[in-house]
């Protein structure tokens, strides 16, 4: 007869708890999601933001002065990336050959600053195009290397942020050139702080989204289509959604579920696996 000891049961129970917690934690790769900033303890209306607190923010510029808020993702390559998330409907305003991805915008807001990099768009992965599927993964070249001014946000392992999470919406206020070209002279990063107490999920034509109760004021900057929702989860700032302004109400914001999009596109992008999944892959226990 095989006897199961109490110690064995405790070990198995602890391992089960660890695995469950591990699965819900963000992908901790490439130094993602780490910044030193004051704690976010309450909802705060839109205000100027410190660029150092959002090193993952990017800007998709388009001919004619159009722009989209973007956010830099980690990749399977060490310390580099070549993909940002933006609003699909925003990105479709012009052809990809007229678009550029700008990363590393500093506190002066200049698009030609010391740490700013501009890259060409070489491909786009997007969904069906309806408002609840307004997420596009923009591929650019050359790839950008990470440093203290350019870091990726972490990727989620679940569809919504944990209850009582401090979250931020960040986007760029645009200052136009005075030469009549309608180009961008410089930008100012803005942020709105949210405390995500609870979330309700929904689906439309196979696309998942979630609702977040809100007490802050809506603006044209941090609530612009595709503005990323980044939440602090286990000490890592993690991307959970992008805002859908047309479906959002004054006291309730609606976000496209980024996690479900990542699941669908996993085979088409070089997404990181994380150290534990890499270990399992090397053993042939995980594809």
What features would you describe in this structure?
This protein has 287 residues and is mostly beta strands. It is 14% helix and 37% strand. It has helices spanning 6-24, 88-91, 258-265, 274-282; strands at 44-48, 57-62, 67-72, 80-86, 99-103, 117-126, 136-145, 165-176, 184-196, 199-204, 207-213, 228-233, 236-243, 252-257. An 8-stranded antiparallel beta sheet has the order 1-9-8-12-13-14-11-10. The protein has a 6-stranded antiparallel barrel with strand order 2-3-4-7-6-5. The longest helix is centred in the N-terminal third of the chain and has 19 residues, at 6-24. It starts with 5 loop residues before the first helix and ends in a 5-residue tail after the last helix.
Helix-strand topology string: HEEEEHEEEEEEEEEEHH
Helix content: 10-25%
Q: What's the count of strands?
A: 14
- Which structural class is indicated by helix and strand composition? mainly beta
* N/C terminus separation: 37 Å
Features:
mainly beta; Thrombin, subunit H; 2 domains; 8-stranded antiparallel sheet; 6-stranded antiparallel barrel; disordered N terminus; zymogen; signal; Trypsin_dom; Peptidase S1 domain-containing protein; Peptidase_S1_PA_chymotrypsin
Compact description:
With 287 residues, the protein is mostly beta strands. The chain is 14% helix and 37% strand. The protein has two domains: 6-25 and 272-283, no CATH class; 43-265, Trypsin-like serine proteases (Thrombin, subunit H).
């Amino acid at each position: 007869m095989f006897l199961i000891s109490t110690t064995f049961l405790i070990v198995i129970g602890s391992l089960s708890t660890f695995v469950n917690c591990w699965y819900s934690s963000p992908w901790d790769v490439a130094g993602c999601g780490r910044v030193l900033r004051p704690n976010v303890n309450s909802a705060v209306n839109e205000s100027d933001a410190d660029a150092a607190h959002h090193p993952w923010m990017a800007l998709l510029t388009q001919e004619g002065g159009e722009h989209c808020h973007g956010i830099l993702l980690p990749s399977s390559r060490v310390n580099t990336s070549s993909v940002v998330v933006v609003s699909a409907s925003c990105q479709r305003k012009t052809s990809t050959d007229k678009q550029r991805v700008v990363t590393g915008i500093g506190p002066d807001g200049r698009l030609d600053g010391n740490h700013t990099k501009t890259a060409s768009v070489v491909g786009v992965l997007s969904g069906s195009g309806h408002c609840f599927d307004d997420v596009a993964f923009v591929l650019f070249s050359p790839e950008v290397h990470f440093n203290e001014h350019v870091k990726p946000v972490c990727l989620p392992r679940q569809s919504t942020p944990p209850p009582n999470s401090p979250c931020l919406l960040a986007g760029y206020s645009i200052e136009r050139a005075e030469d009549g070209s309608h180009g961008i002279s410089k930008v100012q990063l803005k942020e709105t702080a949210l405390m995500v107490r609870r979330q309700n999920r929904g689906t439309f034509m196979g696309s998942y989204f979630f609702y977040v109760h809100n007490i802050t004021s809506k603006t044209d900057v941090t609530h612009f289509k595709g503005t990323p929702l980044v939440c602090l989860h286990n000490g890592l700032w993690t991307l959970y959604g992008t805002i859908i302004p047309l479906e959002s109400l004054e006291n309730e914001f609606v976000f496209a579920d980024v996690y479900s999009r990542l699941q669908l596109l996993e085979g088409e992008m070089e997404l990181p696996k994380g150290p534990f999944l890499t270990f399992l892959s090397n053993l042939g226990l995980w594809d």
